[in-house]
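Notebook B, p. 112. Complex prediction, attempt 2.
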Amino acid sequence: MSKKILIVDDDQEIRSYLSELLGDNGYATVTANDGAEAVEIAKAEQPDLITLDLEMPNEWGPRFYRKISQDDALKRTPVVVISGLNAIQYAIPKAIASLTKPFEPAQLLKIVKDAIG
Amino acid sequence: MFKKILLATSGAPSTFGAARVAFDMAKRYGAEVVVFHVMGVPTKAYSQVVNDVRTGEEIEVDDEYRAWVEEELKSTFEKQIESVQYAKIVTTTGVPSREILRAARSEDADLIVMGASSGDSSAYRKGYPGSTLQRVAKAARCPVMTVHRETASYWGGFGNIVFATDFSKQADSAFRFALNSARELDCDLTLFHALDISGKVLDQNAIEDRLIAARARIRAAYVPLMGDFKNFDIEVWEGVPYVEIVKIARERSADLIVLAHHSLELDPEKARIGSTMEQVILRAGCPVVSVSKPDKV
């Protein structure tokens, strides 16, 4: 069964791009357009990995991360931060990687493959 | 509780983090932002000629110059000003710390938000970077919020507040501010004490006895004041206080650290911020509020 990735981003273009990129490489994807929605979806879908934008309407990425780190079933799910903000590696220090938009697709795929196969 | 926020800014990039937080808070909590800028320090009393705060150049402040500065500020913060309901720009001349305090008083501000230092643009002034903040934090009647590292500042609203106490009298005011904020903004609150063991070699039982005693002291001092507020934890860690405060804030993904301002020096012109506060401000990944006086908490 293919591994499932939750894509959290408020930008529809980025969501479609990531879905396509990850889908073409054999991963199943689900998407959420902000942190509040993402908490519900993460609980329901139990993804193997999460790509997370930081700046979103309603609930921002770091607050979403805080919520899932309090959830026993989700707290060990690897998170890859993908954001346009500066110095993003400090926002979620426990993320397995932080990519600045625009990013290299090959780099993201390598990070994902190394994390979940 | 944050009806009016005074954003003290030189307009330089070192204050952008503070601006981001001030405008975000205003948008979320319906507050008014007063963008306050001190153009320069008069070369002589009541002189029209000032040393520009950013460049250090002598400039004659006339209507044209004033309008130009306001225009610059307006374009710097254009998008943010548009995003809030109430905002105004106020400019003046004088010694920045005194003028910020004066403005906070006359505007009846609930909170002053500022950067920690002007970075390398303060070269012309004697003293050390951050002298404005030090003076404002010491003397302000309202809480002073500092945003130093823009990178992780206030990621979209407050959810978790760390209140660090040293059990001083000032800490009581800081606690009231932390509790009121947590209650009003529906946040989790961590009551924290860092047991200072720096430079000491203590028996582990002695350390753990003191940790237990400090927890009991927090419980006795603050819990009876919390009423029906239940979203709190009590933590005591041993170590170097500023390191432990920054660590617990990171561990809890705190959006805000609240500390009492401290200094034995009563003269605000001479007082420096307590070194723990100073280090926390410089290192924390979230805004830090210092509370000095009980007036506006």
